[in-house]
Write a structure and sequence with these properties.
Ribosomal Protein L13p, Chain: A, four-stranded parallel β-sheet
C-alpha cells in the first residue's frame, strides 16, 4: 500500500458562507475588529486559501456603544481628502460617533483587511447597525469574544 499525502484544494463555488452576529456593546474597538476581519476573510475555516474569497457575512450590532481605550475618544480624528484644494475634511471621534457610529467600525475593519481585489467585496458583506435592531433573520453564529 502506497501512502500519498495530497492536499485537496477548494473551488470558489464550493465555499459555504455563514452568518455571524457580533455584539460590540461595551467592547474595545481595537480588540473586536480583528475578530470581525477574521470572519470576513474566512481565516476561521479549515480549508482557508488566500486566493479564494471564502469569508462569511458579519452583522455588527450596538455600534453606538463601542468603546476605545485610553484618551482616544477625545483625541482621535478621521480625515479624508477629496483631491481638490481645500478638500481636506477632518472629523473627531466624538462627532463621528454622534453622526454615524458605523463608519468608525467600517474604517477600522477596512484598515485591517488586505489591500487587494477582495477588499471591497469583503466590506460589502459587513452590515453595521447602531442599535440592536437589525433586518436579518438568518441563523446566526454568535461571536464568542471576551
Amino acid at each position: 500500500m502506497k501512502l500519498t499525502l495530497t492536499t485537496t484544494s477548494i473551488k470558489g463555488s464550493e465555499v459555504d458562507m455563514k452568518w455571524h452576529l457580533v455584539d460590540v456593546k461595551g467592547k474595545i474597538l481595537g480588540r473586536i475588529v480583528p475578530e470581525i476581519v477574521k470572519y470576513l476573510q474566512g481565516k476561521n475555516k479549515v480549508n482557508y486559501a488566500d486566493y479564494i474569497d471564502m469569508g462569511d457575512n458579519v452583522v455588527v450590532i450596538n455600534a453606538r456603544k463601542v468603546k476605545v481605550s485610553g484618551n482616544k475618544d477625545k483625541t482621535k480624528t478621521y480625515s479624508s481628502y477629496s483631491g481638490y484644494p481645500g478638500g481636506l475634511r477632518v472629523e473627531s471621534f466624538a462627532s463621528l460617533m454622534k453622526k454615524n457610529p458605523g463608519e468608525i467600525i467600517k474604517h477600522a475593519v477596512s484598515g485591517m483587511l488586505p489591500k487587494n481585489k477582495f477588499r471591497s467585496v469583503r466590506l460589502a458583506r459587513l452590515y453595521i447597525f447602531s442599535d440592536e435592531n437589525h433586518t436579518f433573520k438568518e441563523e446566526f453564529i454568535k461571536l464568542k469574544s471576551s
